[in-house]
Amino acid sequence: EIYGREAHCTTCHQPDGKGLPDSGFPPLNGTKWVQGDSNRLIKLTLNGLMGPIEVANKKYPGQVPMTPFGGLLNDDEIASVLTYVRNSFGNKASAITPGLVKKVREEIKGKVGLYSPEELLKQHPIN
Fold it and tell me: Which of 42, 49, 74, 94 is deepest in the core (most CB within 10 A)?
């Protein structure tokens, strides 16, 4: 339900999770950004993301920011939608708990502004 809300995930990443690559919106399926480090995914969901990014071997200019959902969704909602994304569209990854979202939210409460992909990759490299 959260994924499909107007102006939430489905708007850019589409109902099938394949995004709109020609418009600069990356896919959610088959990517380590989604299936990899939970903390990285939570951080980019809470604070948003802007800047050049490579997803599934395709480079995106990152000129349109990903919305920061930290002020729009509570910990239960973020955990639910991220668990859904991590286990839909052919993805298979561990669930994200509301407790982990709460922990990460507390850790980054002083963070101002959007994350850049480079900043997140420095903190949580993709293996």
Answer: 42
Please name the helix (run of DSSP H) or strand (run of DSSP E) that holds residue 126, with its range, or none. none
C-alpha span between 124 and 23 (Å, rounded): 27
Return d(Cα 55, Cα 110) in angstroms, integer: 28
Q: How far is residue 108's CA from residue 57's CA, in Å, rounded to a whole number?
A: 29
With 0-12 / 13-18 / 19 or more C-beta atoms within 10 angstroms meaning exposed / middle / buried, residue 85 is: buried
pLDDT digits (tens, 9 = 90+) for 3-15: 999 999 999 999 9
Asked if 117 contacts 49 with a C-beta cutoff of 8 angstroms, the reply is yes
Instruction: Confirm whether pTM is higher than 0.85.
Output: yes
| Secondary element (H or E) of residue 107 | helix 98-107
Q: What distance in Å separates the CA atoms of residue 113 and residue 29, rounded to the nearest whole number?
A: 26
Report which DSSP code applies to 20.
B
